[in-house]
Amino acid sequence: MRRLRRLPMDVWFEPLIIVALLVGYIVWYQVTTLTEVEQAALAWDNLRVTIGDHITLTLVATVIVVAIAIPLGIVLTRPSMKWLNPIAVNIANIGQAAPAVGLLVLFTFWLGTGFRTAVVGLVVYAVLPILQNTIVGLRQVDQRTVEAARGIGLSSVRTLVQVELPLAVPVILNGVRTALVILVGTATLSTFIGATSLGTLITTGVTLFLPKLLISGAVLVGLLALTIDWLGRLVELAATPRGLA
């Protein structure tokens, strides 16, 4: 109980919500009457593939976004490159401000339909939270700490790796969590451009007027988003230096 009290409330409370929603959905699924189309779409063999495709799409987009946004954020906080900061953030903000569906559709004119186009659209849409948090996290590091590290003989690279980044980790990972949740929700729209995701259940439910299939898709997306957010919180907590936790 003492260890539980030491943990932030969201670390142990969020999984309780996830379990409650999952149990509620399973009970509802067992007692409700489904049509043949709903049964086929929600059969575990089909549902497993759909969920797997949704997770794959989200993770691939996340890896690419992290690989772009964090290094770019580091570069933009270096003294010689600070003048590029407003330009880069404003460009990233365009992707965030644009309607997700419109962004995906626009990319289909360039790249066609399918998984690759969905990944590109999601990457553009999710760059801003990680980029902005990387910049904010590094900027909030006390400059006296940086100067002390340089004073004991550390190079600028070692200071960045051993001092600045560890201190900025909580803020950066918070941006990654935000991007992940955005990507999980936005990935449902990829079904409009031919990429399989849980959005397929939602659009099928709307098109064929199958409310139970629509509800199932929405609940599963919500559960996936909550689960990924919770796992991201655990990673954030584990990666945060003890003095900052």
Automatic annotation (TrEMBL):
Q: PANTHER family given for it?
A: GLYCINE BETAINE/L-PROLINE TRANSPORT SYSTEM PERMEASE PROTEIN PROW (PTHR30177), OSMOPROTECTANT IMPORT PERMEASE PROTEIN OSMW (PTHR30177:SF4)
Instruction: Please give one Pfam family short name.
Output: BPD_transp_1
State the compartments where it is located: Cell membrane; Membrane
Q: What is its main location?
A: membrane
Provide this UniProt record's keywords sorted from A to Z: Membrane, Transmembrane, Transmembrane helix, Transport
**Name of the protein in question:** ABC transporter permease
The residues covered by the ABC transmembrane type-1 domain are 51-232
Q: Does the keyword Transport apply?
A: yes
Q: In the UniProt record, does the keyword Membrane occur?
A: yes
Query: Could you tell me the superkingdom of the organism this chain comes from?
Result: Bacteria
Enumerate the transmembrane spans: 12-31, 51-75, 87-112, 118-138, 180-202, 214-232
The family classification in the record reads: Belongs to the binding-protein-dependent transport system permease family.
Q: How does it sit in the membrane?
A: Multi-pass membrane protein
Cited InterPro entries: ABC_transp_perm/SBD, MetI-like, MetI-like_sf
